[in-house]
Design goal:
3 copies of one chain form a homotrimer.
Chain A: E1 3-10, E2 15-16, E3 20-23, E4 34-39, E5 49-54, E6 58-63, E7 69-75, E8 78-80, E9 113-118, E10 125-126, E11 132-134, E12 145-153, E13 159-168, E14 174-183, E15 189-198, E16 204-214, E17 224-226, E18 229-234, H1 237-240, E19 259-265, E20 272-278, E21 285-291, E22 297-303, H2 307-310, E23 312-318, H3 325-330, E24 335-337, E25 342-352, H4 355-369, E26 375-376
Parallel strand pairs in A: 18-26
Antiparallel strand pairs in A: 1-2, 1-12, 3-4, 4-5, 5-6, 6-7, 7-8, 9-16, 10-11, 12-13, 13-14, 14-15, 15-25, 16-23, 16-24, 17-20, 18-19, 19-22, 20-21, 21-25, 22-23
Chain lengths: 388, 388, 388
């Protein structure tokens, strides 16, 4: 499969393309497709590079400046993503990840898909002196890619946006994320192939969590999570109080306190599984595809507060649950890499545009569920939920 | 009143104007006026947008990149502002507001007018773990505006620079400052109308303090504060030691330790009040106009150190005194906003260019003072001054 | 000596040159020389200004955006510097120096020559509340120059790159580094003249350490430090365990734990001294020249870990050893400046390109050593090594 390819950023060669537009004139197989690269100016976004891919059916924005996150996606008129009170995409210079509170990451949080990791993700953790050992959700989302390119397959017209991002600190973790985001003409979504490479000559541990966030209009009163569930555990007592309704969503409620559920999903013999967010009427939905062998943990974060505060849910396949790093390490929920070793993660998002497509997606999930009855705990469980 | 208007930055529409010059050819009513927008390059200022307004009598620099602060002003040859040891205006990327000391804000401090807030202002405050709960003077001055525009009234030639700046952190405070800076052809100063909007669906509390800073040549040995004073309280014992001379200034003294006085001013029936900094000879002065109902607290910060260290005084109308946030909250000195609620602040600065103008300004203040005798405490007072 | 000169950045005059190339057409005396200025784009380097000087024999990159550090140098095919796991040069916006760990400086560490200071250098130090009092290696390397220029001497063709960088915090230290980097056509290296000026009207203390870093291919198994040694003290027990081999280097060893030695060197009557890093075969070397009266302390940092982790040694003349600031202050190892006072530092790097040049350099060192026998301690010494 031959492909044409365009370098957008190559730090080593000091190449950098400020603006680029590719159409099917540049790559005839990509019928009806457009790829544009631009740099945002002004506000908190000043200096953020955006690669917009439009495959005719679906368009989405890749953010090389924010660790190859996906800002938003659109399928026809339907916007997928959410409206954060943070007006992003935010340049990392405005995100104080290392702030002493450990919460600076929140200043940049507005993407449809933000990777949490790679040294750690989850709640911030402090050392004995009270200093941040692991800031909330880690550093990778606020690291800019040093190499970015686009290629388009000559035959299939498949568009691939590649980016490499490093999270390295001298004397500490040194890892590289090599990400490829793929989509074909007319595909109602995209697919991601990520590889995390341990640059170091010594072993390392990493965590990865795909924090995939949905808001209005897909989310709404009566929307629900559809997934092949083996186990559900509420993260804390507050989540436990709502566990009976864990898969369904309420409408906007100012002051709503977030509820989080930790899940083990069922999968096929190859580890493949999927989870769907379905709107109240079953007329549209989004399905995430991933592999339980790579991403064994699945978290559902419900934050159905008022719209201006960020009415949103996060569906989050990960190597771990978003507990503090030390606790997760104790449970063995980290990925261990040899020196120069690597690990890969596959993730895809597909949008269901009508009732038939939604039902087809539900059927796939029902097949994975089979006749297994989900085990839903009504209280936090040891080994799942960090104390306190 | 029809007006012409030019968008400089509109984050939502991805509009951004790198350079612009407007003259009375663009807006005939603004006789002799010029508005320019440029972006600074190099040093700590790299990437800072500046809107310079010159109305023929007065010119001043508005800083969209620094929360719509006013960098400096000039009336004829007279520079209003001060010479900070910080070589600004400083891009927020170089200001570590969240640094664990809580003092990173100082790295960007060089403006004539810097807003302190909006979650808090005043001395840094730490939580029980020793982590910064409220950094010195808050975050708003280091947030870039996402929307900036200039308009010029067709009839009066009044120039308005508008900017909107957000201070939002997911799960925490979410507020927006909508600022308008106005001036007319020939006006020896400018007027500000600020509105702080609570974006959230839930109630919020904010603080606002206009940290207005004057140095040489207006400040100097023998310069003084002229204001309609009800009460003066020294912030601490050190300030108490100089309270008899609170309204007058010494010349430069290397190693001078700052002294701060907390004041309640008198106002007219509508809350309007004003305070003046007058030079030693009564030949020039600057008056700040504001409303005591909006900004009930007035602080005088004396920092008459050597010129290269920053010989400066701050006259600071605020919702509160610049004590730690928790203490001020206990005294009720915060502004409470409903969900989606807002509060407005009016502030103006006028330069008096000669003895007659100075005397006219003093007469206004004398009228507000009437025959009320100021109450000057010779020690810190409970309810005014945070202990320790 | 007349010279032509070009301003690259002048913050005060709002001058900034984006791209510039100078050749001997611009300055005939600089035969075969080229000076280029460009701004890097993309990745962590986005916005970093680089001045590359090529004198025909040696080329090197000066980094105005990173406190006038020297990124790398090349003499013919030989690269001088090292390959850090950090992909730099890193823009200061991505270096959280004030992070609560005190270790954020490591995120930007990849230069051949990085100045550590000026308030402090060395290991991070925390106050009683656990907050960073002195972050690792200080702030100067992450401050951008506000004034940068190049001049070329009409007679000698000597190229001088000048830059001024400030490390100022209102109410705290206010100092300026005025740096000149010089080289002549055909010179196998460069010379630096630094002056640190106390901007303040009050006395101040500073520290300066030239963290000069060498990796492959100059460093390698069997490479060694050649220096006129009076005393060697291992920093801690781990360093003590390897003290017998202190001047020689091992090959790459994944997981190697760094070893540091503190040295007093011998010098001539004017304080001039020098230290060499020689490759295993004595075929090439790098010599640093400096003055013991200005820089009395010399540290050798051995970090012969695996190449991708940063196989490197630092040879570090300084006003002090890189112990925590308070400890060094107690030993008197700080430079004291009067108000408006200054101190100068001279530093040069010369590359030896063949055996004859290496031997000539060794001869100079042998002359300084004379018949003084080095005193090598086999354990950490009081007054040299901070406890703990």
């Amino acid at each position: 499969m031959a492909a044409k390819s365009w370098v957008l950023t190559d730090h080593s060669a000091n190449e950098y393309v400020t603006d680029l537009t590719l159409t099917d004139k540049d790559a005839p197989a990509a019928t009806g497709c457009t790829v544009t690269k631009r740099t945002l100016r002004g506000g908190l976004s000043d200096g953020v590079d955006v690669v917009r891919v439009d495959n005719g059916a679906c368009r989405f924005d890749v953010l090389p400046t924010r660790g190859m996150g996906i800002w938003r996606a659109w399928v026809g008129d339907l916007e997928i993503g959410w409206r954060s009170p943070v007006r992003g995409p935010v340049h990392p210079a405005h995100v104080p990840v290392g702030e002493s509170t450990g919460l600076g990451w929140l200043d940049g949080f507005d993407e449809l898909l933000v990777r949490c990791g790679l040294e750690s993700n989850g709640a911030p953790e402090f050392d004995e002196e009270g200093r941040v050992a692991y800031p909330l959700h880690g550093r990778i989302a606020n690291k800019p890619a040093h190499r970015v390119s686009v290629s388009i397959d000559d035959d299939t017209g498949e568009i691939a946006v590649r980016g490499s991002v490093e999270e390295t600190r001298f004397h500490f973790l040194k890892v590289r994320l090599d990400s490829v985001v793929r989509t074909k003409p007319g595909e109602p979504g995209f697919r991601i192939e990520d590889t995390v490479v341990n640059i170091s000559g010594s072993p390392a541990e990493i965590q990865m969590l795909y924090h995939c966030n949905f808001g209005l209009p897909l989310l709404g009163a009566g929307a629900q999570v559809v997934a092949p569930v083996k186990t559900v555990v509420p993260r804390n007592d507050h989540a436990a109080s709502g566990v009976k309704a864990w898969p369904t969503y309420s409408g906007e409620a100012a002051g709503y306190e977030e509820q989080v559920y930790f899940l083990e999903l069922l999968a096929d013999d190859n580890g493949r599984t999927q989870a769907m967010l379905k709107d109240a009427h079953g007329m549209k939905a989004a399905t995430m595809y991933f592999n339980k062998r790579q991403l064994p943990c699945f978290s559902v974060w419900k934050n159905t507060t008022s719209a201006p505060d960020g009415y949103v849910t996060g569906l989050e396949p990960g190597t771990n649950f978003p507990n503090p790093r030390t606790y997760e390490g104790e449970q063995g929920r980290v990925a261990k890499l040899d020196g120069a070793g690597s690990i890969s993660f596959d993730f895809a998002l597909k949008i269901h545009r009508n009732q038939a497509e939604v039902e087809a997606g539900e059927k796939e999930i029902a097949a994975l569920q089979g006749d297994v009855k989900p085990k839903v705990f009504d209280s936090p469980q040891e080994g799942w939920c960090a104390p306190g």
